Amino acid sequence: MIIEYVVLHHTGGTDANPLADTSHHTGAMIKDWHIKGNGWSDIGYNFVIEKSGNIFIGRKVGTPGAHAVGRKPKKPEYGSMNGKSIGICMAGNFDATKPTVSQIEALHRLLQELFKQYPTIKEVIPHRWVDPKTCPGKNVSDKWVTDLINLKEVQKLDLSRVSNQELLQELTNRLK
Ligand SMILES: [Zn+2]
After folding, report:
1. According to the model, what pLDDT value does residue 8 have?
2. What is this structure's pTM?
């Protein structure tokens, strides 16, 4: 499959409490729920970024995922993302809180690596652009998500001029 997109998720709330704190969710827990609870063959996401910044490696990249079915795509060309994207989930409910600095740093590192390995990636989009949800959370703006594609350009620049720290600061500021 050709990977054209990265879809960003959060673990979100629960049916009982949409603002529930789910930042303690780990990749292992989610994998367990997806396999035992949903009866899936594997975790739906390709990566889970835990609160600490630990990156949990989920479903193998390049095999169809189970994270964004495309029930209400913002643009017709988006459709279902499962056969053409990488799904990254950040632990936490960003309808109520914001990602941790460690999570943002880990996301940057992961994306830079993915952009290198999969140059066909053309957009990073929020899950809510393909399904009727708030995912990855009301406190994470569309622009913040789509701007992550700029990390692709950063790799082409002289990295000594754009330090990761500055980039992180800029992206963190946009979240405020
Ligand atoms: Zn989602």
Report:
1. 98
2. 0.89
